[in-house]
Specification:
heterodimer, A: mainly alpha, Helix Hairpins, 6-stranded mixed sheet, 30 helices, B: mainly alpha
């Protein structure tokens, strides 16, 4: 028998961990809300049954206000799974129970899972599952996705619930509210069917915009105003939930918990932001200075390999293609693998421990003045890894204006693809302060994204400031498994790119540099393209070689390094010596500032297109190019004054 | 606890000046972490848990700074044992012991 199971719950209650434990899959689990922005599916065989388990994005209610909440709601409404598993956090069950009461209105076969039971036990909380089940009239399972406690019991429970007959378990509102719901449900029964009519009636009375729009064909406004019972419905449900929790959960003392104690300091209004910046600086110092000897080793290894190829194959086309194209191009990018993995490892510790949402929380004050919320800051933080998931993460934003502004500003955040360019330039021109220079570029990128948001909000999108509601996750010791998975998944992206896009681009670039005259790169096709572009970049003092690198770097930023690797390895002089002749320190810094801000890669542009439309892709290209030009010019001019 | 925080804050403040010439950015990180102790000193004595929270988090921060600095020196084969490095490692070790001892105060 095939059983279709939907896994839903509030954000960051451990749905994805539970999904992994149930299916044996390895979806990355973050310790912050809003990680799952799309539906994920996994299959598990259990006692002769095939369970198709769907992990839905986190939602606080079925009152879908953001895109990820709408995805979850539409799935429950229109895909009607056999069993709905509602996951609630053992340490704050109220919001999870609210969602359960809403789902029960859909007359679904539901199971309540109280997750993180191990942490509840540690804090001296006792949860009486029989009592909970008695009040809610649904099976209750206590689980810990971390230790695996209750997972088999949950699988058994899913199988037994799926085979039981569907029964109505509805929450009874007060007489007055019930009367209004019944009246309205009768009116819409003929259109949507008997079972869903009550759900639609409640949603209409709550003022759910999608339901109000759907029911606009009926003349319901004369009977009752949409949203007229919104606060009453919520209050009655919460009153009921508080009674249930009081009956089922043992009381706790007033002492500060470990998380509260740490939060008292890390979200402090005066030192919260400086501590965050200091920690980020230490992370960058580790990734770009401490790990540098490993990168140097790799660089030497690729150099030796290229020499070996030349020694064995001579000076022919094949030798040039392998030594200059493949080893020079791809190798120039791969030498930065240790730095990138080290950075992701440390960011993983911050994320898995639960610190990053606190960073979003403390930055919310700054973001609020830019008419954004801490949620945008979380997208910005994701952008340090890759702009694609950062753009996707804006789906959780309630306000369309905020979403568009964030999508247009996210590409300014320095993604890992730009890192090799910064490291290459910093190691040559600022070797004594490499970590500080790269950190300053990251700070500048954050600053550019924030200023961009402010300008867009003031000039184009004039709207209200949005409110940021974030449930802070508990602190936890990062698990090595999760940390390794995080580092690998983020770093793998870089390796895959090196083996695919960068490899192919390096070969194309090599061909463009090799032909028509293999002995003179200045006459190559690539040089001609670079010269055609360079007149625009002349005020920035970027010559045809820098222009060529920037031109091909639009596809993927790492290609800038590959291009330099190939352009300068064609002579006897080393890359560092050649680049030293190409740039002075001021031009070098303005070059990395330009790289930081100019046109995002093709993958990001494609994501922007699919998320908010083609119009915004065009805007992004011209807008980012303009900002990059202005910033690089400003650096050049200021540098000219001081140096 | 407040006395210990005062000693640690003074030591951290001294460390900031000692490091300023060699590594200004790291010195500023130390200064920021020292503020955690300073704000702990400003907490009311009636709420000892909050004072302990500053001791615990400050201790962890100094431990992290000490470990990362040690690893950085190790990677460059430049193990330094001057006054500033010794003080940083000392603050890190005391911070770790303090954080482990103080954590028992919380649920």
């Amino acid at each position: 028998m095939t059983i279709r199971v939907a896994l839903c719950g509030n954000p960051n209650v451990g749905k994805t961990s539970l999904f992994n434990a149930l299916t044996g899959m390895r979806q990355y689990v973050a310790n912050w809300p809003g990680v799952t922005v799309e539906v994920k599916e996994g299959v598990r065989s259990w006692k002769g049954h095939q369970l198709i388990i769907t992990d839905l994005p986190g939602t606080y209610s079925l009152f879908a206000t953001s895109l990820d909440e709408k995805i979850a709601r539409d799935f429950l409404l229109y895909n009607t799974p056999d069993v709905v598993v509602v996951v609630a956090d053992a340490l704050s069950m109220e919001q999870g129970l609210y969602l359960l009461l809403e789902i029960l209105e859909l007359e679904a076969r539901a199971i309540l899972v109280v997750n993180a039971i191990d942490e509840a036990k540690k804090k001296g909380l006792i949860i009486d599952k029989q009592e909970l089940s008695k009040h809610l009239k649904v099976p209750v399972v206590l689980t810990s996705a971390l230790t695996g406690e209750g997972i088999h019991e949950l699988l058994d429970c899913i199988v037994s619930t799926a085979s039981t007959e569907q029964k109505k378990v509805l929450f009874n509102f007060s007489d007055e509210t019930e009367k209004m719901i019944q009246q309205l449900a009768t009116l819409i029964k003929t259109q949507v069917g008997e079972s869903a009519s009550r759900w639609f009636a409640i949603k209409y009375l709550e003022g759910d915009p999608h339901t109000v729009k759907q029911l606009s064909q009926f003349d319901l406004q004369s009977t009752v105003k949409p949203g007229s019972l919104k606060s009453r419905i919520a209050r009655e449900r919460y009153d009921h939930i508080q009674l249930i929790v009081k009956e089922s959960v043992a009381a706790i003392s007033k002492e500060l918990s470990m998380s509260e104690a740490i939060d008292h300091v890390l979200t402090h209004k005066f030192i919260g932001i400086p501590v965050f910046l200091a920690l980020m600086y230490l992370a960058f110092k580790f990734a770009f200075e401490t790990v540098q000897p490993l990168s140097d080793l790799l660089e030497t290894a690729f150099g030796r390999l290229a020499d070996l190829v030349r020694a064995h194959l001579g000076d022919g086309m094949i030798a040039s293609m392998l030594a200059d194209g493949v080893l020079g191009g791809v190798g120039a990018v791969l030498v930065f693998v240790p730095n990138i993995f080290a950075l992701f490892f440390l960011l993983g510790i911050m994320e898995d421990s639960g610190y990053l949402p606190r960073a979003a929380f403390v930055m919310d004050r700054v973001m609020y003045s830019l008419k954004l919320s801490g949620r945008s800051f979380m997208s910005f933080l994701l952008g340090f890894g890759c702009s694609v998931p950062a753009v996707l993460s804006t789906r959780g934003m309630l306000d369309t204006r905020e979403r568009i502004v964030s999508v247009l500003s996210v590409p300014f955040i320095s993604c890992s693809a730009r890192l090799p360019v910064y490291l290459l330039i910093a190691s040559i021109f600022f070797s004594r302060n490499q970590g500080m220079v790269v950190f300053s570029i990251y700070l500048l990128s954050m600053f550019a994204a924030m200023i961009s948001s402010l300008v867009l909000n003031k000039v184009i999108f004039k709207g209200q400031r949005s409110v940021f509601i974030l449930e802070l996750p508990r602190y936890r010791l990062p698990s090595f498994k999760n940390l390794a998975l995080y580092t690998w998944l983020r770093g793998k992206h870089f390796l895959v790119k090196a083996g695919t896009i960068i490899f192919v681009s390096s070969l194309v670039l090599w061909a463009l540099m090799y032909f028509p005259n293999p002995n003179d790169v200045t006459q190559s096709f690539a040089a001609q393209i670079g010269r055609a572009v360079s007149f625009v970049l002349k005020p920035l003092k970027f010559d045809w070689r820098a222009s060529t690198a920037l031109f091909f770097g639009v596809a993927a930023k790492e290609i800038i390094v590959s291009t330099f690797g190939m352009l300068f390895n064609t002579t006897d002089e080393g890359l560092a010596a050649q680049l030293s002749q190409l740039f002075d320190p001021v031009t070098a810094f303005s070059f990395i500032v330009f790289v930081m801000a100019y046109i995002p890669c093709f993958a990001t542009l494609a994501t922007i297109k699919s998320e908010i439309g083609t119009k915004y892709v065009v805007i992004t290209i011209f807008y980012s190019l303009f900002i990059a030009y202005v910033l690089a010019l400003a650096v050049r001019m200021m540098g000219g004054i001081f140096v | 606890m407040k006395f210990l925080l005062l000693i640690e804050w003074l030591a951290a403040f001294l460390l900031f000046f000692l490091m300023l010439k060699d590594d200004a950015m790291l010195a500023f990180c130390v200064l920021i972490f020292s503020l955690i102790y300073l704000f702990g000193l400003l907490e009311s004595r009636k709420d000892p848990q909050r004072i302990h929270a500053h001791g615990m988090v400050g201790g962890i921060m100094f431990f992290v700074a000490a470990v990362l600095t040690f690893l950085n020196d190790l990677a460059r084969f430049e193990l330094k044992f001057n006054l500033s490095r010794t003080l940083l490692i000392l603050l890190g070790l005391v911070g770790l012991i303090q954080a482990r001892a103080v954590r028992k105060q919380f649920k």
